[in-house]
Description:
This protein is an alpha/beta fold. The chain has helices spanning 29-36, 40-46, 51-63, 113-132; strands at 2-5, 20-24, 69-75, 90-97, 102-108. Strand 4 and strand 5 (102-108) form a beta hairpin.
Amino acid sequence: MYGWVDYGGVDGCARASSVVERGFVSYSNEAKAEILGVEAEILEQFGAVSAHVAEDMARGALNFSRADKALSVTGIAGPDGGSAGKPVGLVFFGVATREGVVMHYQCHFTGGREAVRLQAVQEALRLLLSLVD
């Protein structure tokens, strides 16, 4: 089973329940802390869009589910919210497994909000498929 942390869900996917145990939507820092157990200090020090938070979100998805593997997504889709250090299109993916593997991937996608979201979903699916290989 896989845990999934995202901003869109997997509605409408036939037989998704055979591989997706549950999902979490955690836009705010408070939700990331309450739902997934992300440490407030990590959020304050690195910000919600960071490798550290992506990894903690994936760990939390495992801790609060029966999943064997978890994937998290945190980023800035735009059109606002970017900065010089964290531009629109910056997305971090976190991966955690029951075997103790924790890692992150960083991507910078281009285009408008919908294009960034679509690219993030495509990358998330690619990562999920790599976890089952």
